[in-house]
Amino acid sequence: MSLNTLKTIYFSYFNAIMSYGIPFWSNSPHAIKIFRLQKRILRIMMGCKNRVSCRNLFRRLEIIPFISQYILLLMLFVVKNKNLFNFEFRESH
Question: What global pTM score does this model have?
Fold first, then answer.
């Protein structure tokens, strides 16, 4: 299959489920399992062996790693809900 087809399948299936569940499992002990599964899928998509670093694969495929997606989700939540947070800073004497 072409790389574009593989990316479409990735985003349609795995990424959709992973993104939906990030608020639930990103802080759980299962988060590392999700991240490992994400890396395994990338290696399969690119035809790489199990021990190949995924850093360049994420860049080449333009896919955001699980942990980074979690951080992005948190930042977007803060930006969209600024009114829920008290940003008042006090100087200590």
Answer: 0.79
Task: List pLDDT tens digits, range 8-34.
Answer: 999 999 999 888 878 777 778 888 999
Pull the structure tokens for residue 22. 């990030």
- The answer to whether the CB of 14 falls within 8 A of the CB of 41 is yes
Amino acid, single-letter form, for residue 54: C
DSSP string, 67-89: HHHHHHHHHHHHHHTGGGS----
Q: CA-CA distance, 77 to 30, in Å (whole number)?
A: 22
User: Residue 48 in 3-state DSSP?
Assistant: coil
What the block records as the tokens of 40 is 């395994």
* Three-state DSSP state, 90: coil
67 contact partners, CB below 8 Å, separation of at least 6:
31, 35
